[in-house]
């Protein structure tokens, strides 16, 4: 085998503890996430190597005769990072974990080849996983945007559909009132419409129902037909039954039904226009937040407002924060810093998303900012169950994740750490206990060094 071609005959004894194993076509040799047990060299057959991303099995390669596998998790002391399934009946040479380490010690040429191959594999997997991580962030942003846009878009569409009917009613009632009202009486209606549109009326359901019934009864007493249809608009506008009675006393009796119909339509028109304005304004705010989040149309390195980036990230993750209590403790005196804004937003997304997972979408997250000497510090704390002590030393290691197989790449914190450290000259530190986990991102106020993108 090529791997052992440079091993002197006298040192081949290091392979004696190994054994040959057979794997039938379709059978799984190792599962992603399983504990590491062995190092394998393919002698015959073919095996498919795949890794789960977002619960989707992605092909990473096909192992053919001469290929070896298992060195990466053995050397990193991490769980198996891929699933290996036989495509054809296969025969492999297997070394146990302890025997693998003895082979590296006894056979420098083998160790050299394994290390070189491992470095290439790590680099390739990291590059691919980083792209998947960026796509995952983009997917999170898209999902959040779609969720947040749906409500105002639906409200605007519903209001615009109702608007046509209301405008037609106003025109119809205006035609009926043309010969029934003089200019002064028209002015009374217009004044009632303008005064009502300016009155907010937040009411509980019981009070609202009582007032609607009272107004409907009063209108019917004045001979207005379908008063129950008109009552909700008057209640929403804050117009009570006494005001309507006073207005009715100043208008011709034969004009009351079209007059109050016109007034209701006018109030509804103002309400619908306000709803459309609010909905389209919300859509505009969301688009603005996404544009700011991604720093579109802006140079990579520029002065950024840390708080603006955090707020934009919270907007993007809004659909995940519905049942989470977010507390802000911002020091607004913090100066703007030179940074790659889009990359920092990726850091905030990773850390806040991890905090949401930690509190299972229903706890508390506190985001604080403050100055510490010449550094800007962003602290993201949650009241989740905490990071187990045995896990804490591994969280910045590549491919290490506490999430289920397929739910995380194990690179979120690795990428975040590189963005903060390599791109901005800062650092990420953390402390964790049950009910209190805190990640602190430290960024220098002045930083000019900007290595190539991670």
3D architecture notes:
The chain has 454 residues and is of the alpha+beta class. The chain folds into 3 domains: 2-106, Jelly Rolls; 142-286, no CATH class; 299-444, Histidine kinase-like ATPase, C-terminal domain (Heat Shock Protein 90), CATH 3.30.565.10. Strand 4 and strand 5 (56-63) form a beta hairpin. It is 49% helix and 20% strand. It has a 5-stranded mixed β-sheet, covered by helices on one side. Strands 1-8-3-6 form a 4-stranded antiparallel β-sheet. Strands 2-7-4-5 form a 4-stranded antiparallel β-sheet, with no helix packed on it.
- CATH level 1 name of the largest domain: Alpha Beta
**Which band does the percent of strand residues land in?**
15-25%
> In total, how many domains does the architecture comprise?
3
Report the order of strands and helices: EEEEEEHEEHHHHHHHEHEEHEEHHEE
